[in-house]
Specification:
This protein is an alpha/beta fold. The protein is built from nine helices and 15 strands. The chain folds into two domains: 5-51, Urease, subunit C, domain 1; 55-268, TIM Barrel, CATH 3.20.20.140.
Amino acid sequence: MAHDLAIRGGTLATATETFNADIGIRNGRIATISEAITDAKDVIDATNHIVMPGGIEAHCHIAQESGMGVMTSDDYETGSISAAFGGNSCFVPFAAQKGGESLAQTMQTYDERAVPKSVLDWSYHLILTDPTPDVLAELPDVFAKGVTSFKVFMTYATRVSDGQFLDILSVAGRHGALTMVHAENHDMLDWMGRRLVKGGNVEPRHHASSRPSLAEEEAINRAISLARLAQAPLFIVHVSTAGGAELVANARSKGGQVWAETCPQYLFLTRQ
């Protein structure tokens, strides 16, 4: 059976090896990998190029309101097209629960935003802001639909208490799901912010001072302790401090199921 498309002459890079071969595609799927495919209706010449699987963008904010109700600039059309041009074949934006909202309502809202517009496959990280007993009871249904990661905040108006965090970790852990956390000590940030404003220090250059390293480090340490108590895996998003990274490394060295990510600006920019 002829192939619909052949990607010819490229260097294929997989998770384990790199080699020269052609790829034959039929009905939207890779059907053949061989030295030479000559029966395709369409051909992409990949000579002198590396051919690799599409990336998965695992942390992005698409058609999502912030805690202050501000909508992101990208919707599922512009965001997915941009991701595709960047070499991604799938992305996982966040679906944010509003206070008093069921998870079914949250999923419906984001499905309505994604289904008519996205040109890529997608899933969601579900942001939990109001984890009532009824909402926690919905989590198994969400797992069954393929959403297996959840995010909580330890600061902002959307923050959860330590007890609520433990409840989420416990349910997620029992079902093999991953809990993500934005880890900053809310009261430390609020205290520093009020002191800076009272002193007239309101210029942008004071932003770094308003978010002291200790606020992240304390929250990361607390989040790791909560996950350890709940015996559940934990993923800490956008770690910005050396102390926070050390806490994650130390937990992992002791066998903890703790992972983390950072952002380019934390690696290349200074406080100035």
